[in-house]
From TrEMBL:
All copies of domain ChsH2 C-terminal OB-fold, residue ranges: 51-110
Domain ChsH2 rubredoxin-like zinc ribbon: 12-48
Domain of life: Bacteria
Protein name (record): Zn-ribbon domain-containing OB-fold protein
């Protein structure tokens, strides 16, 4: 089963090169993530994927201690990361850290079997 579709293909294609991109509306300039058909600010349909810095801060997080399915070894950290450019990404936090809200983080990449990479975030100090 593929994780991408017509709306998300640009995002996933960039991950093959370990580039983090988010949608930007050509009409109003709003940046958004996750990819959607329409701009969440003006309803415009002319969206493009633009690169972002990969820097952000932890907005919220939780440590999962019980695996919801086989192959997900706990503990792991699920978080909302607010990108420097504004949008929020739901992601995993990796690395050895005393996790806290507002902790500066940077993007890192977890390889997927098909050549794409999953963006995860680690402490800026790592």
């Amino acid at each position: 089963m593929s994780m991408s579709d017509e709306v998300t293909e640009g995002f996933w294609a960039a991950t093959r090169e370990r580039r983090l991109v988010i949608q930007s509306c050509r009409a109003c300039g709003r940046r958004q993530h996750y990819p959607r058909w329409l701009c969440t600010a003006c309803g415009g349909a002319e969206l493009e994927f633009l690169p972002v810095s990969g820097l952000g801060v932890v907005d919220s997080f939780t440590v999962v201690h019980r695996a919801p399915a086989p192959g997900l070894a706990p503990p792991y950290v699920v978080a909302r990361v607010r990108l420097a450019e504004g949008p929020v990404m739901l992601t995993n936090l990796v690395g050895d850290a005393d996790w806290a809200c507002d902790l500066p983080v940077r993007v890192d990449w977890r390889p997927l079997p098909d050549g794409r990479h999953l963006p995860v975030f680690r402490p800026m100090k790592d």
